[in-house]
Amino acid sequence: MKKIVVLTGAGISAESGLSTFRDEDGLWEQHPVERVATHEAWERDPAYVNDFYNMLRGKLLAAKPNDGHRLVADLEKKYQVTVVTQNVDNLHEMAGSTHVIHLHGELMKVCSSRDVDNPHFIKTLTPDNLEVAPGEKAGDGSLLRPYIVFFGEAVPNIEKAAAEVMEADIMIIIGTSLAVYPAAGLMRFAKPGTPIYLIDPRPTVSAKQNLHVIAKGASEGMRELSAML
C-alpha cells in the first residue's frame, strides 16, 4: 500500500462549526493569544486560561466531523495513512482515522503544569466532565492545565511528523495557511518528486512542480482529490 501523509489545519474543522483562530472573526479577535495561549498567560492567570479551554470543549462537544474528515478517513481503505494535524479537536478520530499525530496538543486532555508530557498525569476528559475547576490539581500536585502546546513552547511531536513525511508517497495539505512553524515546514521533508496536493479556498502559495493546488474548501476539495486518486 502506498503511504499518504495528510497535514490538516483549522480550515478542515471550520466546516464543522469550530472557529478558526486567524480569520477576521476568529478566536484570536475575541481572545488575544497573549491572554490564553502562552506560558506567561498561564502563569499570570491559570483560571482564565482554563476557562477559555473549558469553553472550547463545550463547542467541540456540539461539533461533528464533516465530509473532509470522513474522506480523509476513507483513504485508509486503499492507503497507509497518517494524519498530522495542527488542530486540537478530535474530529479526525471521530471520523475514523486511526493514526493521528496532534502537533499542538489535544483539547480533550489535561495534564500536569509541572511535567506537561508525563503520561502518568495526562487525563482525558469526558463529555459529562468537560471543565477544569479553579485550583484543580493533577496527580503530581501541580495545577491541571490544558494539554495544549502554548506559543513559545516546544512541539514534541514535530520530529515524529517529519519522519512520517519522509516516508510518504503522496502528501495532502488541507485547510492551513502554512503560516505556523514548525508545522509549515513539514512539506520540505517530502522526498524529491513526491506529489503534494494543497486544498484551501484561499491558498497562500501558488502551484509549482509537484505541488497541485485545489482552491476549494476541505469537503469539496477532498471529494475532487478522492476522485483524482
Q: Which whole number gives the mean pLDDT?
A: 91
Residue share in helices? 25-40%
The tally of beta strands, per DSSP, is 9
| H/E element order | EHHHHHHEHEEEEHEEEH
Tally of alpha and pi helices: 9
Secondary-structure content class: alpha/beta
Strand content: 15-25%
| Order of neighbouring strands in the sheet with most strands | 3-2-1-7-8-9
What's the topology here?
Blueprint: E1 3-8, H1 10-14, H2 27-30, H3 33-36, H4 39-44, H5 46-62, H6 67-74, E2 80-85, H7 91-95, E3 100-102, E4 105-112, E5 123-124, E6 144-148, H8 158-166, E7 170-174, E8 196-199, E9 211-214, H9 218-228
Parallel strand pairs: 1-2, 1-7, 2-3, 7-8, 8-9
Antiparallel strand pairs: 4-5, 4-6
Helix pairs in contact: 6-9
Outline:
With 229 residues, the chain is of the alpha/beta class. It is 30% helix and 19% strand. Helix 7 links the parallel strand 2 and strand 3.
Jot down its keywords.
229 residues; alpha/beta; 6-stranded parallel beta sheet; 3-stranded antiparallel beta sheet; 9 strands
Describe this structure in words.
There is one protein chain. This protein has 229 residues and is an alpha/beta fold. The protein has nine helices and nine strands. The strands form two sheets. Strands 3-2-1-7-8-9 form a six-stranded parallel β-sheet, with helices on both faces. Strands 5-4-6 form a three-stranded antiparallel β-sheet, with helices on one face. Helix 7 (91-95) links the parallel strand 2 (80-85) and strand 3. Helix 6 runs parallel beside helix 9 (218-228). The two termini are 13 Å apart. 39% of the residues are buried.
